[in-house]
Automatic annotation (TrEMBL):
Gene Ontology molecular-function annotations: ATP binding; corrinoid adenosyltransferase activity
PANTHER family xrefs: CORRINOID ADENOSYLTRANSFERASE (PTHR12213), CORRINOID ADENOSYLTRANSFERASE MMAB (PTHR12213:SF0)
Organism: Alicyclobacillus cellulosilyticus
Pathway annotation from the record: Cofactor biosynthesis; adenosylcobalamin biosynthesis; adenosylcobalamin from cob(II)yrinate a,c-diamide: step 2/7
Assembly mode: Homotrimer.
One Pfam assignment: Cob_adeno_trans
Record-given protein name: Corrinoid adenosyltransferase
Cobalamin adenosyltransferase-like domain sequence ranges: 3-168
Organism placement in taxonomy: Bacteria, Bacillati, Bacillota, Bacilli, Bacillales
Length: 187
């Protein structure tokens, strides 16, 4: 099988179901941002310590699969059915995972700077790209229907990635760096 098709040479791509859209279409932008987030999760996975962060590595792989599901949801225009959709309970299933990892780091009361170890920085980048994908999905939702569990899982996933970045830093002995001019915003 060839990787190239020449089908996109004029600036268009195919959605699930065969409909053609320009590559800057809101739907394409949304699932493209999801694809980008998945790549950053792959980078984070490669940078996480194989033993110390083995559990986080497993979570990251699970999140990559969830991103593929959400991306497929957003690549399917209204009226197109396909074998798998993001499950209704996907976002809720992430909440106990967030809580479990949140308990491993001290509470924050101020904004923190993103960074720390290379693995944590990659998780922070993935978090922000997931947030962009969520914003793209919201813009799309305002123009045409989307499968809402895909949007909800992006919202919850960005929270989890923020927490995982903090945990990765803490396990490596890196303290959170508080934004210098941050008031106390979290209680």
């Amino acid at each position: 099988m060839r990787i190239y098709t020449r089908g996109g040479d004029r600036g268009m791509t195919s959605l699930i179901g065969g409909a053609r859209r320009y590559k800057d279409d809101l739907r394409v932008e949304a699932y493209g941002s999801i694809d980008e987030a998945g790549a950053f999760l792959g980078l984070a996975h490669s940078l996480l310590h194989p033993e110390r962060d083995a559990d986080i590595r497993e979570v990251v792989l699970d999140l990559q699969h969830m991103l593929w599901d959400a991306g497929a949801d957003l690549a399917a225009p209204p009226g197109v059915s396909f074998a798998f959709r993001t499950p209704e309970e996907a976002a809720a299933a992430l909440e106990p995972v967030i809580d479990r990892y949140q308990a491993q780091v001290p509470p924050i009361t101020q904004f923190i700077l993103r960074g720390g170890t290379q693995a944590a920085a990659a998780l922070h980048v993935a978090c922000t790209v997931v947030r962009r994908a969520e914003r793209c999905a919201v813009r799309l939702m305002r123009h045409e229907p989307i499968h809402m569990p895909a949007l909800q899982v992006l919202n919850r996933m960005s929270d989890l990635l923020f927490v995982l970045a903090r945990v990765a830093n803490a396990r490596a002995g890196e303290a959170d760096v508080v934004y210098a001019r941050s008031p106390q915003v979290f209680r």
